[in-house]
Amino acid sequence: MYDKTVRRRRAVLALLVVLSLILLTAYFGESADGGLHSVQRGFLTVVSPIQEGANKALKPVRDLFSWFGDTLHAKSQLAEVRKQNDILRKEAIAERADEHGYHELLALYHLDQLSLNSYRPVTATVVGKSPNIWYSTVWIDKGTSSGVHDNDPVVNEEGLVGKVALAASDAAVVDLITDSEVGVSARINGTNATGVVQPKVGDLNDLVLQYLPANTSISRGENVVTSGTVASPDDSLYPPGIPIGQVTSLNEESGYKSVNVHPLADLHNLDVVQVLTYTQGGMAARLTSLGASLPSARQTQAETTAGGESGQLASSTTGTGE
Amino acid sequence: MKLSGSLLTRIAVLVVVVVFFQIGVVSEVPVFAVTVDLSPLVVAFVGLLCGSTIGAATGFVVGLLVDLALVQTLGVTSLIFTLIGYWCGRLRELRDPQATLTPLLVGAAAAAAAAVGYSLVEFMLGVDAPVSLELLRQIVLGVVVDTIVALPMWAIVRRTLEPGLPDDPRRRRRRAYTTGGLSPLSRA
Hints:
Helix content of chain B: over 70%
Number of strands of chain B: 0
Distance between the termini of chain A: 77 Å
Shape of chain B: globular
Helix content of chain A: 25-40%
Number of strands of chain A: 12
Number of helices of chain A: 5
Oligomer: heterodimer
Structural class of chain A: alpha+beta
Strand order of the largest sheet of chain A: 1-2-5-4-3-12
Structural class of chain B: mainly alpha
Order of helices and strands of chain A: HHHEEEEEEEEEEEEHH
Largest sheet of chain A: 6 strands, antiparallel, barrel
Strand content of chain B: under 5%
């Protein structure tokens, strides 16, 4: 009897561990359109109304706890924000003068088609968040029925927030820019120096802009914005010029430069965000599908090393505008 | 331990409520800049109350729910939580610890095992992004915060499941002892 119980116990454990490993292997190996991803999409569709209802019912509780934290945080930031406000006011006055000429140039080269005008912003409420350090994701209450697609860029009033990882009919999961799997093509504002913004896993207040040319002149406090290019087929075509963060420190590395960036968007307290959706057949949609057809960064690197010239294809979609 | 219909229903309700409360409320309220994670605590406490088989099965289901709901790599959380539930169940079956601080220590161990387990699996799967030393601080702070909420969470889990648990002879003996029936003091 005892032996039977022990055998059954061990068999259950072995079965569950093997099931987990099969799931892990299958999920890791399949594409975004695979069966397990579809199951996740279906699950999201089913439970999103429950989650949305629970979120609304429990919002007062959450707000109460957040209020204490926000008050303490706001007090500590007051002096710094006042100083920043003075600097920004001066910059705004200077930039207004340049704005007129900039728009004329954009219109001249028809580049404004690539800007936010090509996108239709969909406002969504954040209804859930992952507690895991390795997965920085949030749930939003808008999905494919509102025009949201996988990989759509997500912003808030402060700057870039992330991209849609998976969209169900009435909900979507957004990978934040601090998620370990997200990389954003970006540049230092006002320069042509582009690199890739990646998170520093474990540190939610720090990003790193890597692979900048070694001769780039950068100083602290400069703004980092999206470059409007894609770094890999899985990447989102973030429209150019969306603020990401501010440079906090510089690192010299062999061959290239990298800088630490503090994200502008307060990713701890997201409440309302905007998904930049596009209409099928529009400029943004065409460029996104073009980006998806590019060879992956690793593949391109391998081909370049092997003597091919296809490396020039990577990260170049903005130049293809009509 | 046999799984009765009442116990199964209670565990199912507890698991679903905790997972959605975690995603919708608890995760959005940072404490000391980290997030309290109730899921490993629930799995550990179900194991501690119901034994290794039910603990492991609960761990698998909670992990699957979390991975499905948050679009994480399927199987990672299930694997880690299955082992946590099993080990906590074995602890009950082998030692049956009765100290008041047992849930606190089990909660801390479960939180630490979950955090370290995630990190190990993620490193094994390959991390493209640079990893900050801040990760260690986040893990330690996360374990501390989870330990703080372990006792109230234990009270909730025990209160929810106890009516569905079969009457354990050891528990009945202890109850009789502490309420005076078998105490040498009451006989004197």
